[in-house]
Write a structure and sequence with these properties.
The chain has 190 residues and is an alpha/beta fold. The protein has seven helices and nine strands.
Length: 190
């Protein structure tokens, strides 16, 4: 977002912090436990999510990059019995509950033996459903590396689910946040 910019996850979308908006969609999808990995400004993020039925885990190494957040999330007890995990990014304001259910449904169609990836047409994006068979290799990732290498080496088929432009719309700049319907002002209440 740039120096001096507000923290995007706390920016207002119709009076609701972005992180709360995204987590509410995950909860409304009713596909399983929702575990939120926090790091930077963890207390503010948790305050923005107050009252929601979520599990939290703080990543003390969040500055190391995405790999550590995936790893910390996978160690949460709520995820020990799951067959797959939807990795959902908190800066994607237009991914809704219906899209998450579509991803889950395709995961079930493939009996948990495929990676399911949201797409806009044939352009892959996020969220991604990772089968349990990839959890152990994810624990070997480092830095700002996501699961892409693990997916490629895992030998599992990757199926795209077209959820439209939401699969590619994240808000990494002030202009993108405003274009997605957000305001460049932080709110920390739920």
């Amino acid at each position: 977002m740039g120096e001096g910019a507000p923290y995007k996850l706390l920016c207002s979308f119709a009076g609701i912090p972005l992180v709360r908006r995204v987590c509410t969609e995950a909860i409304e999808s009713a596909i399983g436990p929702v575990v939120v990995v926090t790091g930077f400004r963890a207390q503010d993020v948790e305050a923005a999510l107050a009252g929601l039925p979520l599990e939290f885990v703080v990543n003390p190494r969040h500055a190391d990059g995405m790999a550590s957040s995936l790893q910390v999330g996978l160690t949460h007890p709520a995820l020990q019995a799951v067959d797959g995990l939807i990795v959902m990014l908190a800066d994607m304001p237009t991914v809704g509950a219906m899209a998450l259910r579509q991803l889950r449904d395709q995961f079930l169609v493939h009996n948990g033996h495929a990676v399911i990836r949201a797409a806009d047409g044939d352009r892959p994006g996020n969220p991604v459903v990772l089968p349990k068979s990839l959890f152990a290799p994810i624990m070997s990732l480092a830095g700002d590396e996501g699961a892409r290498r693990v997916i490629a080496a895992g030998g599992l088929p990757v199926h795209l689910v077209d959820i439209g432009p939401a699969a590619l719309q994240d808000v990494d700049t002030p202009e993108a946040l405003v274009a997605a319907g957000g305001e460049l002002r932080e709110i920390t209440h739920g």
